[in-house]
Give the backbone structure.
Amino acid sequence: MRRLAQILRSSAWLGWQVEANWAEPALFLVYAIAKPLATTLILFFMVKIVSQGDATAETFRFIFIGNTFFLYVTEVLIGISWTVFRDREDFETLKYIYVAPLRLMPYLLGRAFTRVATATVGVIVALLFGRLALGLSIGVPGTNWLLVLAAVLLGLVGVLWLGIILAGTSLVVARHSMNLNEGLSGLFFLLCGAVFPLDVLPSWARSVSLALPFTYWLELLRRMLTGEGFAKSLAAMSDGDLWRVLVFATLGLCLAALVWFEWCERFARERGLIDWKTNY
Amino acid sequence: MTPDPGGGTPTLGQRLRMNAAAITARASVRVKASFRERSWLVGETLFPFLTMSAFVLVYRGLNAPREYEGFVVLGGAMIAYWNNVIWGMASQFFWEREQGQLQLYLITPVSRMSILLGMALGGIVMTTTRAAAILIGGILLFHVELPLSRALPAFGLFVLTLGAAYSLGMILSSLFLLWGREVWHTATILQEPIYLFSGFYFPVSAMGVVIAIAGSLLPVTLGLDGIRQVFYGPAAHGLLPLPWIPPIQIALTAVFLYIAGVALRFMEELGKHEGRLTVRGD
């Protein structure tokens, strides 16, 4: 465990240097929060122009929460697989992981730390902005903040394992397949109902949506922070049901990630893909 | 173009032909490259379409009038061009420098503006396939109505908008030229915040006149506002009267082109003095 902690710490430090050492921390912070704040305001004005102020507080709150926490998916999911391409092809350092006394997966999880931290800052700033600037009430009298934190962490763990699955895939595909990883994030944004109620999706898309863990994650967070559900399709499920789905989905993702990543890593080594260069 | 063994100064006609050849060559590289890698084609059409669809469904979830979905589809198509301006124009000299090709441009006897113009024209052709897919997809999947009878004036305004937007991209390319890794982050920061200030997903007037006017310094803001007015009339919540927009876009194009020429010469000189034109920053 101590060794694992050391690897995570070192790779997290390396990740921070790679991501952020081009700028002062304050400037880096501005860049980190620009995207979540801009997206929040886009949605705010969309609701405002339609409702002319009437529905802003209630409707926008659900959209706001979904969009804010979805930031973890976009940042972390893409970040981990991007690390593989950058290390393999830009810095040409991926091969050196194999001459060091560490395994690739913990290294990638450590490298993801910067993205998790950046996304966390983005989420916190967006929540504060929603509360202070937009006057949204985040949380209700019965909100258990420790449970909210646990739900966020559980969802984040799921995102990390899905990121490892994509990182494994990245080991065996060319760099331009990065498009597919980014597309997956867009697909989740659409299908998880991050910014609209699931009920407006066509029935076939709703079925796909109900198979994705992040759909339940966002619904659970909305219920905890507003005291009400957003998706009618999930109205029959209790909070306990949502927790159960989330826990089992996270365990499933973990198992799938461990098996898939090991297979991809072995395949990449057998085919000589660890120092593959596909950039053009 | 055969070199002149006598080493004499090229005539005006020769210079024009050289620059025209440079424009064609740079544009054709971009057009051919964009169709060579099929996964890019999918990545640049399907995936932005997914995000755009989510924003269409926001309006549908809010029971908004159908023309709002049209605003998003038009905005989604315009985003394709804006992203091309950022990643294909502004960042391009940076990438060329990273790959060691910038000096090849600098030793040619053609204007840098011709190379940029070639990039712009090739980029427009490339992006039009993506934007068309987004528009057609929006019309077919979401049944967005774009009255064909108003397509011609909308197209005219669209062409003027592209002229101004790509001229702005030429200015940015000289700024990006001297930067290092901040290029990545700057290009990123010119996405979602610009989607906001340009009103890609909602009428820009919703932000209030002061912010909307400030946002209108970006040609895509006014262009999109005007195109929506052409298609949807007063329902578009237009910012400026429609007849004002074409002359403003023409003026912006002229000003941006002039600034781009000056900035490019200045940055090139600065880069030479500081020895940064061949330094890899990433």
Q: What stands out?
A: The two ends of chain A are 41 Å apart (CA to CA). The first helix of chain A runs from residue 2 to 20. DSSP finds ten helices and no strands in chain A.
